[in-house]
Amino acid sequence: MASFHLCNSIANVNQTKTNLSLMLASSTSSTTTPIIKLNSNLGNQSISSKQNHIANHIDKSMEPSISSSTSIVPEFPLKIGIIGLGEFGQFLAKAFKRQGHNVLGTSRSDYSEYCQEHGIEFYRHVNGLCEAQPDVILICSSILSTEDVVRKIPFHKLKPNTILADVLSVKEYARNLLLDVVPEGFGILCTHPMFGKFSGKNSWEGLRFVYDKVRISENRIQERKCEQFLSIFQDEGCQMVEMTCEEHDRYAAESQFITHMVARILSNMNLESTPINTKNYETLMELTHTTVSHSSDLFDGLFLYNLNAMEQIEKLDRAFETVKQNLFGKLRSTLRTQIEEKVTIDTSADRPSTYFLPNSNNVTDLSSFSLVPKQGKQDASVELKTEVQHASV
Amino acid sequence: MASFHLCNSIANVNQTKTNLSLMLASSTSSTTTPIIKLNSNLGNQSISSKQNHIANHIDKSMEPSISSSTSIVPEFPLKIGIIGLGEFGQFLAKAFKRQGHNVLGTSRSDYSEYCQEHGIEFYRHVNGLCEAQPDVILICSSILSTEDVVRKIPFHKLKPNTILADVLSVKEYARNLLLDVVPEGFGILCTHPMFGKFSGKNSWEGLRFVYDKVRISENRIQERKCEQFLSIFQDEGCQMVEMTCEEHDRYAAESQFITHMVARILSNMNLESTPINTKNYETLMELTHTTVSHSSDLFDGLFLYNLNAMEQIEKLDRAFETVKQNLFGKLRSTLRTQIEEKVTIDTSADRPSTYFLPNSNNVTDLSSFSLVPKQGKQDASVELKTEVQHASV
Hints:
The structure is a homodimer.
Chain A (H helix, E strand, L loop, with lengths): L1 H12 L65 E5 L3 H12 L3 E5 L5 H6 L3 E3 L2 H6 L4 E4 L6 H6 L11 E4 L4 H11 L5 E7 L14 E8 L4 H16 L3 E4 L2 H24 L10 H14 L3 H9 L4 H36 L32 H16 L1
Protein name (chains A, B): Prephenate/arogenate dehydrogenase domain-containing protein
Keywords (chains A, B): Oxidoreductase
Organism (chains A, B): Coptis chinensis
């Protein structure tokens, strides 16, 4: 219902009849096989095709396997420029460094100290970062600020074949934005690592990495850079899932957004630990805690920038209503039985009854559950009997 | 809102003005220290008092420790008569047998074969079970059928000092029912093992066992039986939590009922595995699966027979509404910004904009998210500008 109110409100704000001619930007995704043998295992393990989704299986017995001190120097290290050195940008930068790539970074805030400690070249402005001519520019800004970030990139400073990649949790929006802004010739790779600092703390083994080669030209340099960038995640043990941005957004709304929605609702209820927590309740509290520890900007972005999120809210709304009505129906029929019993059967101390349910005069505030009518049971039944018979006439 | 509709419906069904005199049955709980030294570790580890709730801590590193073949014969084994040999009754019977107690059982269905295999004396009727004079009668029926079960017990066949115990997930109801039906002299022990066949599959270590000695007389025989029965759970490693039935029901509604409610809602949504599940989404699916694998009778019982459940539904309802309104508010203000930008700023190809949000003419069906307006951008903006200015006059 609330969504209809929303539509009405929007209609009030905007009483216009515009006739914009819209079109969905066409995805120029290419799925060619890598030609150049990379210094990684990507050449041996072909990445799943869009048609064959990877089986949904995570090895439950996975153990921490990352040693942060281990650093492998690849034959041709990539120069990766990260825009946005927040938690997630830093989290990814560590893996890039661990695999021996060169990492540059820029951010709204000053991360020069952090970068110095972690072997990252820090640039105060995106201009400097682009002048250093990275192979891949990885946009790690929040969903809400990404358009602004992308529009400020000085593309003329980049070398040809540079790949623009993003890690947003919404992919149709990212694809359309990049297709609109990034000049022809540059590559576009949309990705979504389906994990973060909690789930990927010890290992990325078995964690899903979704990607869509939105616009990777068939020249060898861009192709090689793209495959090499993807191999970073493959080498960390990620389950590589290639799918279109549309598919991603549909699945993500059904899974990731619903998880965030449930966590935000439970967080709003201020769930507290009790002395009698069940294991499942503790799981629910933990899930709520880790999910809402992400910024509320992420949650807003998952809703505002994913076409399918509203449908999922409506589905959740209907499911909640169904479960409630089912329970309330049971309550009504139990009370009806209680009343009918009192009308048709003579009261007797030892016959089965439903006296332990709320009594009729206390029903409206539902505060009489579990009360035992110790006194006046007989009288009340007789009185109720009379009243109900009267009402049915 | 729905709860108010419910109240109205009930008011329609029952237009009576009864004046039942109700009273909450007083709990005659005793918290005496065990006098007799038991053949268990209960004598050494005193059970926590009602005032000191056990710290909420489960050892995460717990390992399976139960060997089903190990059987310890206690010095004075108890004779435990289980009424209701469903999944949970069987689950508990195994532990009683493992600890060397004598287990008798009766049930609506014929479990004679199962009982023969598991060393349980099966009785076709409750009369036979009572004639065998167990020390403890443990009621393991569903919430909905328990009143009927309790009223059919032939108490005159039992020996004095027999303890009537239950394991229902709602405790005020159980306490009031037992206090009403069980004759003076017999003991009443209300318990709730906060675990089941999933969470307690490998071990009960650290799992919570809630109990309330509702009516245990101070004579040594009844006291000893009670402590010995509790020691079974203590010896299995349970966290023993003594609290009143009222306290239990308040905490259980906040934790166990909310968990079941969320699981029932998500189950109603038919959550499905996607190729891009996050770890938290998989946790949510698993939690839903294990929770709804309990009978719907249990869920109905948790709602119908716990005074505090309705309040929790209302709280969940308000939280859902708050989260939705928060998101919808953000959507409205984003759209307002989009409209204002178009009105006040001249359109230009490279300025930051919010074109990637749904466009005004497609807003009502919310299906235009992430569409890139490739054509007619300039014209449409001009048209929109005119219309909005017109509307504001």
